[in-house]
Amino acid sequence: MIPAGLPRDPAGAAVGDIVVARAWKYDGQPHWVVPGYYLGNDVHGHWIYQPAGSLVSRPGHGHWADTDAVCLVPRTGYWVGTFYDDPAAEDLRIYLDLSSHIGWRKLARGGWEVNSVDMDLDVIESREHGVFLDDQDEFAEHSAQMAYPQELVAAIEHEAASLLDLVGSGQAPFDDTMTVWFTRGRAAYSDAPSR
């Protein structure tokens, strides 16, 4: 069941806390789960380091991450971002999941879980293909199947258009802002994957 009414800020989160990023689909089905380490926050939101070797899983699929990533959970808006900086191993540079119901909660044995509902659309910056919007067909199909509210559909479409512009023009945090967070994460956690 999708957690409801969670706060957008993890009050009391400390650098080094384990963070489980947990995505759902709108109908309540579980989607991707990725562990990481809380790095801190800035004006853009909260940053999580996900080292190479971490388990990335969803029902029916799992794999070990090939590369390091940093995840940004913004304080406002309808998206969660993942950033990559290894062009030799990863064509993607930025992957923004359009999302709703974003919120944080403490885990029972320490650490945090950040939940979101994946709304299908993705804004992607690929080193080979540039910046583009992906999965419009899935968004249209699921909008009908899962009865997305029209207000939410409009908000997601508006956010996607705005993000395309921001990523395409390289505005922060879609410039080199991620570099400092990769540096911090690698210095502390690169030898600490989830396996």
Number of E-state strands: 10
Order of strands, main sheet, comes to: 1-2-3-6-7-8-9
Main pleated sheet = 7 strands, mixed, barrel
- Mean pLDDT across the residues is 95
The radius of gyration computed from the alpha-carbon positions, rounded to a whole number of angstroms, is 16 Å
DSSP helix count?
3
Low-confidence stretches: none
Strand fraction band?
35-45%
The helix/strand order is EEEEEEEEEEHHH
Q: How much helical structure, as a percent, in the residues?
A: 10-25%
Your description of this structure?
- The chain is of the alpha+beta class and 195 residues long.
- Helices cover 21% and strands 41% of the residues.
- The protein contains 3 helices and 10 strands.
- The strands form 2 sheets. The chain has a 7-stranded mixed beta barrel with strand order 1-2-3-6-7-8-9. A two-stranded antiparallel sheet has the order 4-5.
- Strand 4 and strand 5 form a beta hairpin.
- The protein is globular.
- The model has no long low-confidence stretch (mean pLDDT 95).
Q: Which properties best describe this structure?
A:
globular; 3 helices; 195 residues; 21% helix; alpha+beta; seven-stranded mixed barrel; 10 strands
